[in-house]
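Aim 2 progress update. The chain analyzed this quarter is reproduced below.
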Amino acid sequence: MARIPLGDWVETGVDFLRDHFQPFFDGITTVVSGMYDGVDAVLGAPQPLLLAGILAVVALWLRGPLAALLSFAGLALIEGVGQWDQAMSTLSLVLVASVITVLLAVPLGVWAARSTRVGAALRPVLDLMQTMPAFVYLIPGIFFFGVGQVPGIIATIVFSMPPGVRMTELGIRQVDGELVEAAEAFGTAPRRTLLGVQLPLALPTIMAGVNQVIMLALSMVVISGMVGGGGLGASVFTAISQVDVGLGFEGGIAVVILAMYLDRMTGALGRRVSPLGRRALARERSADRSAVLRYRPSTAVAGVAVVVLALVAGGLHTFGGSGGTRAALPAGHDVGHGRTVDIGTINWDEGVAATYLWKEVLEQRGFRPQVQNMDVGALYTGMSTGRVDVELDSWLPVTHADYWRKYRSSLTDLGSWYGPTSLEVSVPSYVKDVRSLADLRGRSKEFGGRIIGIEPGAGEMKLLRSTVLKGYGLDKEYQLTTGSTAGMLAQLERSVKAKEPVAVVLWSPHWAYSKYPLTKLADPRGLFGRGDRLHTLAHRSFPSEFPQVSRWMKDFRLTEEQLGGLEQAIHDAGQGHEQDGVRTWLRSQPGLVDRMAPLGAS
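Predicted structure tokens:
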């Protein structure tokens, strides 16, 4: 049977929409990003424990003293593990996405409940939206809206809308038909019947749908960390890509605490706003034995408490309590005057090293560099749309050739800062008689039938799949596993400790060669191509917007010894302390910052 080019059709449709309706998508981006920035500014302004106190007062009003105590303790734990800023960014994403989703889902649900044809037409669409893998929504999102928070919010809206529509439709359909007939018999207009009879009685079911919308939104915004969505998603994505158990647990527990808080509060709010819920709540209170547990402040008292705490938080922020001011720079060093530079990075050691080196240098020159960690494809897409200003880890002319051909019209090449490099498959030195890729033939059982790979979007992985493995007749014997660089390194370390044969995808330069006894497998056919150089790529407008930074980066060079020492310093500093590693290394390189970013350059 001939292959149906469904994927090609979808891609053509996406390209058509992007080419002809980009102003429309830009307008959506402006509105959604404005909403997110506003909510994030509100949640990010107060001191963490003060905002935790405000949220605890909300819990006291809705659920009582025990819920308030547990809420404060959970939020304080998020602050204690250093995930507060990320958690507030995630909460901002969830709130914006959930509000937009509810505003769209409830009218659609009402329409579906009042029209059998509309309900029948919506049902398969909702089935598709609800069962499509969540990651798929990110692909058109980054094409239409770039990288960052907006594609994550849009994907979240699409992913979380079905339960809101379904539960609204269900709630209205379940309203007793005799009540509706009675209202109509007294001459009530259909709109007043909807607002005065059907919606109030359907409210518990609708609020259950809102609860599900928020839970799905929280799960989706975590996934959006892969495309630069930030928040806890970035922490979880970084932990996965680096196999960092500690960071993964800290980010995960913060997600759990937020999920439990939002679930309990929205559930309690549903009971507060529904007449049936209020009657059930009154019966429960009368059945409680403890007066303390029965206590709920009135809405006025809770509101006053929230306002007081908010005023205190705002006062502390106004009078310098936020700690967000920049450190004073020596005279003549403040070249950037606080301008933001968005630097994208892939979680590869050489790129992380160069990125955080430039982050430190730019901060010493008065800029505000922001680092976004994302996958290769998302990074190139983000640069092409201007959501990312610059990145320092493009392997050209071979490894990233596909990306360069696709996006070169939107990018500018600031030159190479290191090279030549090499791509290779490596095995531990204790593996006998394996010195080239050709030697792997017929020995797949020894290596478990697999070659341990890295990120699926990496250019080296594409080259291996399309050319190298086939060229050496290994594609039928070996499976090229995909995962992350950190996962590959973790497997390499386990195998070396156990003295087991393992074949891994590697490249030079890499600190693994100084840590483990490894043999680079020769490529006698030259299928990996000649050695790449590491290039700095930027959006095409970057040289005009940041002319001095562009000149600095064009002249940037590192030797093999410098890059190896920098990578090792960052590795020793540990996850989350990359800039500390850079500062430690710079102390052994006197004058390097002034050579990289000379102040007198014109």
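The CA atoms of residues 192 and 431 lie 80 Å apart. The first helix runs from residue 6 to 20. These observations will guide the mutagenesis experiments scheduled for the next reporting period.
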